[in-house]
Amino acid sequence: MLAARRKLPRDVASGPEAEQRVVSAIVEAILDQKLAPGARLVERELALSSGASRLAIRNGLLRLAQSGLVELSPNKGATIATCGPREAREIFDARVLIESSLLTTLSEKASEDDIARLDAFVEDERQAYAAGRMQDARYLSRGFHLLIADLAGNRVLASFLRELINKQPLLSWTGNGSRSCFCGNQAHSEIVRAIAAGDASAAVALNVEHLRELERQLIADRGKALGVEQPSSGEAKAIAERPPKRARALSTKGAFDWRAKRDAAGVLAGKTRGAR
Ligand SMILES: [Zn+2]
Q1: What is the per-residue pLDDT across 84-118, written as a single tens digit (0 to 9) for each?
Q2: What is the pLDDT of residues 248-268, one digit of tens each?
């Protein structure tokens, strides 16, 4: 392998910043579906492509393992985690609980500035979908739920929610980048109106309906990727339990551009990308 013969950069970076760079780049690659569930992460290749030290890589991988995005095993090393139907259900059940609490809190205390921020965010998201900027649109769709968490002001719940949302692409890997338009901009808009009206129960009900629809779409996308167009609910479980057919190992070349991703907001870092 060519990469194995290359020397490590002399000015390899260590410390929290380098670790965060590793974490952010891997999270971004998962969110962009550039790293498949089951893909191997080779420490030396990660060091070469990220410019981070081996120690920073290991610490970054440990953090990703703690959040369930990476699996570490003595035999296989580090691999991107895989998510089955049971985990999908657990993730969405957890999202319903956490987001219902956040929406109740926010509906009771949202200021005019909070509503203006939410309105502006939903408008940015609408424009991104309308212009066909799907990658931006998907970031904004995920960011909407994180913005609600930030505005509600519970940092612990916000952190849990961020970890759950980061795992979502692992549930719906299609291998060809074709995905449904997951997050309904219309649903977000209706949720903001309910928050603005101080109607917590409506905001919660709208969001629960929205999350269950999202869960159904993820299962349908997984079914399509595995070659079954429209799985019935009975088939969906069996389909989702099959491994993705195009799980691929990470190679340094062409996998993703570390340096381009270096300054991208890391969702794990607690930044709501695109939030203004
Ligand atoms: Zn949404």
Answers
A1: 778 888 999 999 999 999 999 999 999 999 999 99
A2: 334 333 333 333 333 333 333
**Tokens read off for 124:** 């940015």
Of 4, 41, 45, 52, nearest to 262 (Cα)? 52
Residue 6 C-alpha to ligand 1 middle, in angstroms?
44
Residue 128 Cα to ligand 1 middle (Å): 14
For the chain, domains (ranges, CATH) are 2-80 (1.10.10.10), 85-245 (1.20.120.530)
Rounded distance from Cα 276 to ligand 1 centre (Å):
17
Task: Work out the number of other CB atoms within 10 angstroms of the CB of residue 108.
Answer: 11
- In Å, how far are 62, 155, 264 from 26, measured between CA atoms? 12, 23, 11
Question: Dihedrals φ, ψ of 264, to 5°?
Answer: -65, 145
